[in-house]
Amino acid sequence: xxxxxxxxxxxxxxxxxxxxxxxxxxxxxxxxxxxxxxxxxxxxxxxxxxxxxxxxxxxxxxxxxxxxxxxxxxxxxxxxxxxxxxxxxxxxxxxxxxxxxxxxxxxxxxxxxxxxxxxxxxxxxxxxxxxxxxxxxxxxxxxxxxxxxxxxxxxxxxxxxxxxxxxxxxxxxxxxxxxxxxxxxxxxxxxxxxxxxxxxxxxxxxxxxxxxxxxxxxxxxxxxxxxxxxxxxxxxxxxxxxxxxxxxxxxxxxxxxxxxxxxxxxxxxxxxxxxxxxxxxxxxxxxxxxxxxxxxxxxxxxxxxxxxxxxxxxxxxxxxxxxxxxxxxxxxxxxxxxxxxxxxxxxxxxxxxxxxxxxxxxxxxxxxxxxxxxxxxxxxxxxxxxxxxxxxxxxxxxxxxxxxxxxxxxxxxxxxxxxxxxxxxxxxxxxxxxxxxxxxxxxxxxxxxxxxxxxxxxxxxxxxxxxxxxxxxxxxxxxxxxxxxxxxxxxxxxxxxxxxxxxxxxxxxxxxxxxxxxxxxxxxxxxxxxxxxxxxxxxxxxxxxxxxxxxxxxxxxxxxxxxxxxxxxxxxxxxxxxxxxxxxxxxxxxxxxxxxxxxxxxxxxxxxxxxxxxxxxxxxxxxxxxxxxxxxxxxxxxxxxxxxxxxxxxxxxxxxxxxxxxxxxxxxxxxxxxxxxxxxxxxxxxxxxxxxxxxxxxxxxxxxxxxxxxxxxxxxxxxxxxxxxxxxxxxxxxxxxxxxxxxxxxxxxxxxxxxxxxxxxxxxxxxxxxxxxxxxx
Length: 777
Hints:
The chain is α/β, with parallel strands linked by helices. It folds into five domains: 8-180, no CATH class; 194-286, no CATH class; 293-425, no CATH class; 431-599 and 664-680; 687-772, Sandwich (Immunoglobulin-like). The strands form eight sheets. A six-stranded mixed sheet has the order 9-21-14-8-13-12, with helices on both faces. A five-stranded parallel sheet has the order 3-2-4-1-5. Strands 16-17-19-18 form a four-stranded antiparallel sheet, with no helix packed on it. The protein is globular and about 95 Å long. The two termini are 58 Å apart. The relative contact order is 0.07. The model is unreliable at 718-723 (pLDDT under 50).
């Protein structure tokens, strides 16, 4: 799908949204707190609220402007007072001008007016830099976590940057990259712009007139008359909207500007709907009525295609995409008014993939063919279901996905089952367990299907990391109880029992079921470092490797079904973020593994009848066969005990009616799983501490590095997160000889253990070394 250019507003919104995301097992924050000690961001609030209406500002009580004191904000956050745009699933953003993070954390010393907000930092989430400092405008523009721009650090540039902020907010980032930005560049943005003024006036004539003094208003009218052949006083906004829809001279420039950022002018589309096109001068792509008519036609065509035979349906969708693909570049797509046209891009990819089932004369060859490209069919189905649209359009897209996708999944699953059943032992031998490795942290991502593994590889590669991906085969049945113990380093400590009612093996040393807690105990017993995904610490003992778990993909699939498709991108971002933090904390490599894949089909998998008398336990995609019962569905041996028989539904069927999301059976989606090995890229910056010399409470640290702008600091403990709270000595930049001098001001810390950390310009730890304060070395 196409990617639209990003502005400062786009990147800022994405950064604020990321603060609302949580990892596995963590409740969502009740609010995002945005401290701004200098009030630098205030000029951007009016523009930002056009995109994020759920922002409230600390200040005097003006509820019409969504501004009020701390107690009013508490009521908004707790939903005891209403706020327009604050839905049940929306996390409010609390903007705190002239408030620092430290003030909120100071407890009883916090100003009385702010004290109602203190507890929100524990129930909510603070938006701040990775190094713990508040986001200033300059930091956001220059940091890789923000825009990554090259901005001069002098006072004139900083002042010009802040002056231009309201205009800078809507400039495409691509227009600012590739050069050093100085005061003149920012000042140039603030100079009068006739087209911008025209669009602002069309969007809200009264507000525009109110902010103009007499001289500026007269100049605006004069420019409109001269350059646009239009009189705003005599002709009004309706006439301007009519001109905007025609292909004529400078009005084309105005249209392109509107097309670049239409959400900045939300009232202009309303005006355009009032225009009745009468002649050929109108550009049909600029007519909202034209787009609406084509959306209705596409809805009808897609609905009809769902009743066609599979091959015909695929070909019909491909033709419809050729007809409607141009509309994805129309402004109405940016405004969310062309959901079906947007869905046609992944739907057409799905249709093309679904015409070609995975090949291979053996189960192994079929799995390899799927890993070589067949997974793209699954990914296209997910991306089509993730297109944001109203329920009516979503129903059409879901029905179309089902008609294209289900026959392909069913056909490939039946072929895989046929090949695997010819030699179940050979299929079982394809499975591979996981062993711990020195300097390697194993990241277990629950339910990371192979197509998502490919997406994760792309995501990590974009971060400059080196990623190797291969496919593995999950053990049968493809459920967590069986597959997770096998994937973990504790697999050799497990064995199958005689029954396996819930498909869980036993810990051989105790004879107890291999539950998650017992698995973690067995892993730790091997000397493997057990990590918490929420509190990654700098790696201190990596000889036996590490283990960390993340992910809610499987959990969400079972609870929300097809809606999972819209959550996938957030989960992948969380996994990628954890991989990055692990590498930053000192691990040489991260190996991402999983337990099983899954099937996801809107409308549910086809129901397969299975008599209760022949099975001991039954799930949607697998069942435990009772004794020697004879059944008419495929049967495979349990991975942990080949004397135990597992029944699976033929093809993409389900033993339970209505299951949209399920796993446990034999299909490419469930059995072929990814393994990613992630390392730092060859060009990554690096640093090395070559000498540490203490003289009393002053430490001289010598650093070798290929990075510019590094600093050295002294911390109390090993935590990567929240360094401000653990800092002993403020960060210092090494001199030209690579030496940084750090002073410890508190005498009582002498003899205490501490950690020296070398940081890059964003606060990321490049290397670290333990030390004892005041020791002679």
